[in-house]
Amino acid sequence: MKLDWTRATLRLAEPLRISRSVMSEREAIEVTLSDDGAAGRGEIVTSVYYGLDAEEIVRQLDLVSAALPDLGDDLVAGLHPGVRAGVDAALWELAAVRTGVPAHELFGNPQWTDVATARTIGLGEPAGESAKALVEQGFTVVKVKAGGPDDVARVAEVRSAAQDARIMVDPNGGWTPDEAVRLLERMEPSRVDVVEQPIAPGQRARLAWVTARSMVPVVADEDVETVADVAELAGVVDGVNIKLAKFGGPTQALAAIEEARSAGLDVLLGCLVSSSLGIAPAVHLSGYARWLDLDGHLLLADDPWTGLGGADGTLRLRGGPGWGLERR
């Protein structure tokens, strides 16, 4: 078995502003695991929030390459979850290619159904105009980044422009507990479908307090990074955001999904800004989720891959073994 990788810069079509940062580009490392004529691919993206830069990714990939074909538990456990996610994705696609089936079949979803994804409106973007444009493109789910001074008005503008759409609100932990309860109550006329991480992570008792007072389902994002976190959030929130880049890939995501089901928690499948290669594993897991926020590839100026769709709000697989992607 051989591991190869290449580096690239993913540039966003427009800078994305959230409550804690602004991003216009990020580096990505495409990994390929090949063995006996078959190959599987995955993607690792840099993240300031998760403390992962390109140099550290390459350093850890060197360790993986030197250890192949036997990846011991200690080595895997020592990898950053983002690196582990890319390598794990490549292993899953390699298995799917060898078997000759789409990856979702290996994930336990033998039938594929086209699904709707949210599209994000960042802070600073004209909320009403952006929502109107998204609806015209075909989107039925709109996500509004919050954490600014005019959150209630922005969400109301989105509802006015997208009267039949499902609205997700994401302050990225930018509200205080009191603000969260007050703002969500004021947003009730806008019929918000779900709110992600309303308050800063690390305050589970306060998060439970917000959840108990909210008419809107509350989903933890920054507060959940491991399967153990999922179990501990039972009774604290209504759902969990499972991002493969923070859990360590499809293997741990499947375990987290199973834990969420056991705990009575709904699942939101989210993503980092990535190419279609980075988004594809989550798309193949979409049958397990109540909400999908898998628009990372749609935010790019030039996605190097095709095969997921999504430009009209609907994710569609082209079929074929593995992820079903083709390079542009």
Automatic annotation (TrEMBL):
InterPro entries to which the protein is assigned, alphabetical: Dipeptide_epimerase (IPR034603), Enolase-like_C_sf (IPR036849), Enolase-like_N (IPR029017), Enolase_C-like (IPR029065), Mandel_Rmase/mucon_lact_enz_CS (IPR018110), Mandelate_racemase_C (IPR013342)
GO molecular function: metal ion binding; racemase and epimerase activity, acting on amino acids and derivatives
Keywords, sorted A to Z: Isomerase, Magnesium, Metal-binding
Entry cofactors: Mg(2+)
Cofactor-binding details, from the entry: Binds 1 Mg(2+) ion per subunit.
EC class of the enzyme, as a word: isomerase
An individual GO BP term: amino acid catabolic process
Record keyword Cell cycle present: no
Amino acids binding Mg(2+): D170, E196, D221
Listed name of the protein: Dipeptide epimerase
Family: Belongs to the mandelate racemase/muconate lactonizing enzyme family.
Enzyme Commission no: 5.1.1.-
Catalytic residue list: K145, K243
Pfam family, one: MR_MLE_C
SUPFAM superfamilies recorded: Enolase C-terminal domain-like, Enolase N-terminal domain-like
Gene3D superfamilies xrefs: Enolase-like C-terminal domain (3.20.20.120), Enolase-like, N-terminal domain (3.30.390.10)
Organism this protein belongs to: Actinokineospora globicatena
